[in-house]
Design goal:
3 helices; 24% helix; 7 strands; alpha+beta
Length: 131
């Protein structure tokens, strides 16, 4: 059974608008998360993520402008745990630093690999947004 985990990444000196575009739009996600991201023409909540010749479909479950996006992979629709992945933007009150919190789910034996993958992905995000 998949278990939930969260990771926090400090992204100092980033524009919220730039970060939001990078985590919530097909063009932004294509710069760091996948090789290509497309939205279904009829259903604007259905995203297809491409990596080389493979792809995965996900539904945009929920979002709030400049705050968070939450996706669920098609393969997880019937899972009783209702796994998802979420990218949430927040600002630390004392320091005014921008923090990106990643929430995801993984099988216990895959959790360490998932954490490494997210860490690498966020490094790609930092490069894409000029950090």
């Amino acid at each position: 059974m998949k278990e939930k985990f969260q990771l926090e990444f400090n992204l100092s000196n980033v524009s919220i608008n730039v970060l939001w575009t990078s985590i919530s739009t097909p063009v932004g996600l294509s710069e760091w998360f996948a090789d290509k991201v497309a939205v279904d023409g009829e259903n604007k909540n259905e995203f297809t993520f491409y990596w080389g010749k493979s792809f995965q479909k996900a539904i945009l479950v929920n979002n709030r402008l400049e705050s968070y996006v939450k996706f669920r992979w098609d393969e997880d629709r019937q899972d009783p745990v209702k796994p998802y992945f979420e990218l949430r933007i927040s600002i630390m009150e004392l320091t005014n630093e921008v923090v990106l919190t990643v929430t995801d789910f993984a099988e216990p034996e895959d959790k360490e690999d998932s954490i490494k993958l997210w860490s690498n992905q966020i490094e790609d995000l930092k490069t894409a947004i000029g950090l």
